[in-house]
Amino acid sequence: MSGALDGILVIALEQAVAAPYCTAELAAAGARVIKIERAEGDFARGYDRAAKGDSSYFVWLNQGKESIALDIKQEGDLALLNRMLDRADVFVQNLAPGAADRAGLSPEALQARNPGLTCVSISGYGSGPGVDGLKAYDLLVQAESGLSAITGGPQEMGRVGVSICDIGAGMTAHAQVLEALIARGRTGKGRTIEVTLFDVAANWMAVPLIHTEYGSGAPTRQGLRHPSIAPYGAYQSSDGALTLISIQNEREWLRLTQEALDLPELASDPRFKGNAARVENRDALEAALSARIGQIKAEELRARLAAASIAYGAVNTPEDVTRHPALRRRDLTTSGGAVVSGPARAVRGVEGTRPGPAPAIDAQGAAIRKEFAA
User: Active site includes 226?
Assistant: First the structure.
């Protein structure tokens, strides 16, 4: 199956999550992605063995890529990499800041020989005073960016349960590569792109930061409650299941209290008239709602909410999600040829290509060396 990026050559000096996420999306659109690894391989190969012996991270993010093991400190391997880059459309790397430049792989040097090359650098913080030398794994950036301070319950901060800063950086880089390729169609020139995990997280923290500097302070940690809308949170039914209920306007508030929960006295209570009042009197509100919902089984509660056109969602476990009717799937092939089922790409209506398996270390090394021989 052809893809929108057929004929595009991407060289990826990458490891872990952020850069591989970017290039995985490019590969799914038809680009040829050659992954440069150390002899021991991308360290994400060793994160776990959940995917029938392979790392779940690696299988997810490296479908259809080619692998060659290079030591760019060796003159011959560096020369080979430069020959590959002379013919490439995109170069993505997430080495430590400055490492690519020290190896002679700066955007200026590469684009002097190949003006159409787009060079993408992904790092934790970039470089500069105060951030030089900072390690930048996902959870560290969640903490440094303030994301951890607003995530979790009232008594404890929490980690967002997936590598959200890495994934966000990969998504951002992918979008910028596509912009660069469109621009090159008009100008013939590539772009130099720098994406940092911290910049992405800080951008997503815009509302808490604006509240901190200009409002009454950042939202406090509410667990499964919305800090500025009430009721908007999870409630436990009589069978122990949690259902998240969201009220966005007064029409919904009346339908919730009068139709779904048979609590007309709440609808007329002046403490709960308008969202601002409900937030101010949240403790009393939550006590009343929880007492009523605690008398109803989850199936009946959700049927009542649906009949009243109230937005709700089950608080699912990962096991529950594997059976969710909205979950679309795709097959992922491990480096050993086994097949595991994973979530489909997060886009509908554009199927993309059906790339091959995640590669074994240096699986295409011999062929790539021959193709790009001096």
Answer: yes
Whether residues 201 and 238 share a domain: the answer is no
By C-alpha distance, which of 279, 284, 235 is closest to 261? 235
CATH of the domain at 291: 3.30.1540.10
Nearest alpha-carbon partner for 120 in 178, 69, 58, 46: 178
Both structure tokens of 322: 């594997």
Among 174, 211, 226, 324, the active-site one is: 226
- Whether cis (ω within 30° of 0) applies to the bond prior to 357 is no
Residues in Cβ contact with 355 at an 8 Å cutoff, skipping those fewer than 6 apart = 27, 28, 63, 64, 65
Sign of the alpha-carbon dihedral angle for 241, 247, 252, 255: positive
Q: Which domain holds residue 161?
A: 9-205+327-371
Confidence (pTM):
0.91
Quick check: is 224 in a domain?
no
User: Going residue by residue through the chain (374 aa), what tens digit of pLDDT does each one get?
Assistant: 578 999 999 999 999 999 999 999 999 999 999 999 999 999 999 999 999 999 999 999 999 999 999 999 999 999 999 999 999 999 999 998 889 999 999 999 999 999 999 999 999 998 878 787 788 899 999 999 999 999 999 899 999 999 999 999 999 999 999 999 999 999 999 999 999 999 999 999 999 999 999 988 888 888 999 988 999 999 999 999 999 999 999 999 999 999 999 999 999 999 999 999 999 999 999 999 999 999 999 999 999 999 999 999 999 999 999 999 999 999 999 999 999 999 998 888 776 566 789 999 999 999 999 999 98
Q: What is the DSSP letter of 144?
A: H
Q: Which region holds residue 352: left if phi is over 0, alpha if psi is between -120 and 50, else beta? A: left
Question: Is 260 contained in some domain?
Answer: yes
Enter the tokens of residue 78: 């560096």
Do 310 and 332 lie in one domain? The reply is no
CA dist 35 and 345 (Å) reads: 20
Contact call for residues 67 and 360 (beta carbons, < 8 A): yes
